[in-house]
Amino acid sequence: MDFIPMPELPTQPPTSMTLTEWMDSLRRGWENTKKALTEAAQNYKVQADKHRSLQPPFKVGDKVYLSTKYLKLKLASKKLGPKFLGPFPIEKIINPVMVRLTLPCLLGKIHPVFHCSLLKPAVTSRVRPAPLSPPKPLIVQGGKFYEIQK
Question: Which of 16, 84, 90, 118 has the fewest C-beta atoms under 10 angstroms from its C-beta?
Fold first, then answer.
């Protein structure tokens, strides 16, 4: 037979919470939880904003280059194809991060609204002017000929 000791009896009278005290403690706990969640959300936003880049302020009429990242172009090799197309003028600014471009018919049925992360502003400088479009062929007696200038 094992000896089982008697449990010690409490020397202080038990303190039981009343219903109102219990409800108040629950309410305080809920308020503390909401406060902690709000602070955590603010801290998350501060940390996330450190890694966000500001989009350049585009205006209607500005020229931008369009990334070919998500475009399906008919090329022999996407790797050797152009990284950007354009420049294309901005037709409308839908919201701070979405822009509608005026695209040529050559690109086919591409939806003209793009996120600003896919656009790069077209900068023209005096040192390196914008590339000229290729000369149009001269049509002489039904055939196409190019005029050579030196």
Answer: 16
Give me the helices (H) in the chain, please: 19-50
Neighbouring C-beta atoms of residue 114, cutoff 10 Å: 23
Q: Residues with Cβ < 8 Å from 64, sequence gap 6 or more?
A: 58, 86, 87, 88, 90, 99, 101, 119, 120, 121, 122
Domain 62-121 has CATH 1.10.1240: no
Residue for token digits 């008919």?
Answer: 74
Distance, CA of 76 to CA of 5 (rounded, Å): 88
Residues in the chain: 150
For the cut 80, the answer to whether the pLDDT of residue 118 exceeds it is: yes
- Tens of pLDDT along 6-50? 777 667 766 777 888 888 888 999 999 999 999 999 999 999 988
